[in-house]
Design goal:
binds fe (ii) ion, globular, 5 helices, 148 residues
């Protein structure tokens, strides 16, 4: 399969975004306060554990198609579409962050899904469509939790 540097760069943008999102989720897990502590402390752990698996799968996918995954925090911060969060202790603010971060990740994944099709990169297409479907489901749940 022949890909291009810009396609690999865009996959690295998704990888970088997940890395910053991962650290933001850890911070939510650590800093949650209030009566939803037990519920959200666990939910955040479930989410960052899943993101950790996605990060590894994505980095290895980049290698499989001949690219090099970014691995430094400096590169992640430069390339992520998601910013590092300031301190969030409130549960509703945390869930709002997660919903907005997932929307940003979905935008990148949908563009990449179309790009993967152009390169006939079926493995990456399948990987991305799983991520997209999973987020469509969890976004519905986060909206329900937020009464939106
Ligand atoms: Fe923990």
């Amino acid at each position: 399969m022949k890909t291009t540097a810009s396609y690999i760069a865009y996959l690295n943008q998704l990888l970088s975004s997940y890395q910053i999102h991962y650290q933001n989720l850890r911070a939510l897990h650590w800093n949650i306060q209030g009566e939803k502590f037990f519920e959200l402390h666990l939910k955040y752990e479930e989410l960052y554990t899943r993101v950790q698996v996605i990060i590894d799968d994505l980095a290895e996918r980049i290698l499989m198609i001949g690219g090099k995954p970014m691995f430094t925090y400096k590169d992640y911060i430069t390339n992520s579409v998601i910013s590092e969060n300031s301190l969030i202790t409130d549960g509703t603010d945390g869930m709002k962050y997660i919903l907005s971060a997932q929307k940003e990740l979905l935008v990148v994944e949908r563009v990449l899904f179309k790009e993967a099709g152009k390169f006939e990169d079926e493995g990456t297409s399948a990987f991305l469509s799983d991520l997209i479907r999973e987020k469509e489901k969890t976004n519905w749940m986060f909206r329900a939790w937020l009464n939106q």
